[in-house]
């Protein structure tokens, strides 16, 4: 695979991948991929990740059904990270939000603001 010859996985065999919504360029989540996850992602057109906490390859959304269909894959100038643009099914965040980045720091009030509405109830999904 031509893409793999341009990438530099870290000493654990992983590369960070920023997942972005293709419709509005919003960052949905950050995940890690090993070579198998990336190959499976390219092969199936569905985002696969390497779950460090479970030490295994998995389809993003395999539990919730909130899958991510790949539209475009980009890599940085040094080949050390990926940006993958996807069509998101339902939501990307386990907490019930479209994006994992649903909280914003307000430096004027030194507070954290929730800037999105929940799109699903995680207690009913997981």
Automatic annotation (TrEMBL):
Q: Does the keyword Amino-acid biosynthesis apply?
A: yes
Q: In which pathway does it act?
A: Amino-acid biosynthesis; L-histidine biosynthesis; L-histidine from 5-phospho-alpha-D-ribose 1-diphosphate: step 2/9; Amino-acid biosynthesis; L-histidine biosynthesis; L-histidine from 5-phospho-alpha-D-ribose 1-diphosphate: step 3/9
Does the keyword field hold Protease? no
- Keywords of this entry: Amino-acid biosynthesis, Histidine biosynthesis, Hydrolase
Q: One MF term from GO for this chain?
A: phosphoribosyl-AMP cyclohydrolase activity
Q: Which reaction(s) are listed as its catalytic activity?
A: 1-(5-phospho-beta-D-ribosyl)-5'-AMP + H2O = 1-(5-phospho-beta-D-ribosyl)-5-[(5-phospho-beta-D-ribosylamino)methylideneamino]imidazole-4-carboxamide; 1-(5-phospho-beta-D-ribosyl)-ATP + H2O = 1-(5-phospho-beta-D-ribosyl)-5'-AMP + diphosphate + H(+)
Q: Name one GO biological process term.
A: L-histidine biosynthetic process
Q: Which residues form the Phosphoribosyl-AMP cyclohydrolase domain?
A: 30-102
- Report the EC code(s) recorded for this entry: 3.5.4.19, 3.6.1.31
Which superkingdom heads the taxonomic lineage of this protein's source?
A: Bacteria
**UniProt similarity note:** In the C-terminal section; belongs to the PRA-PH family. In the N-terminal section; belongs to the PRA-CH family.
Identify this protein by name.
Histidine biosynthesis bifunctional protein HisIE
- Organism, scientific name: Candidatus Scalindua arabica
